[in-house]
Design goal:
By secondary structure, the protein is an alpha+beta fold. About 30% of the residues lie in helices and about 30% in strands. The protein contains four helices and six strands. β2 and β3 form a beta hairpin. The two termini are about 25 Å apart. About 30% of the residues are buried.
């Protein structure tokens, strides 16, 4: 029997409001569930004010564009992370490639759901909005990686 203390794995859920990076784009909400060696993320547009951003995920859709990616076991940068779409609509397919990039960068399993209106993707704002989504997720995960467990 060990006399040292053991730390119980914990699940942390955090929702972040991301103000629009451009006047033509909507605000974003990022809900991150931190598990053991993995993250489950929902990212969607929101009309909720910052102080009520925790309500945004319940108003969105988890399965609009949902993917899972696993980082490669060895550190060979030439091996792409294994990934699969879990659910997706015909209007969006960006979660798969983004989940792969995040799994490679953070070396953790990533479950990623992206919930953006198809109108933004088809009206010339798609690339800008998807860039804002990925930047928001990367910034959120970087902040979580640097937090010390409580």
């Amino acid at each position: 029997m060990s006399s040292g203390t053991t730390q119980t794995p914990s699940i942390r859920v955090h929702t972040t409001f991301i103000p629009p990076s451009d006047v033509s784009l909507p605000a974003l909400a990022v809900q991150t569930t931190q598990l053991v060696d993995s993250y489950m993320l929902w990212v969607g547009t929101t009309e909720q004010p910052p102080e009520e951003v925790h309500k945004a995920p319940s108003l969105g859709f988890l399965s609009k564009d949902w993917a899972c990616a696993m980082p490669a076991r060895d550190s060979n940068a030439n091996i792409p992370p294994a990934a699969t779409s879990l659910l997706r609509s015909s209007s969006s397919d960006v979660a798969l490639s983004m989940a792969q990039r995040l799994a490679r960068r953070f070396k953790k399993q990533i479950f990623l759901s992206i919930d953006v209106p198809p109108s933004f993707l088809s009206m010339g704002q798609g690339a800008k909005l998807i860039f804002a989504v990925e930047k928001a997720v990367v910034d959120t995960l970087k902040a979580m990686e640097h937090q010390t467990p409580t």
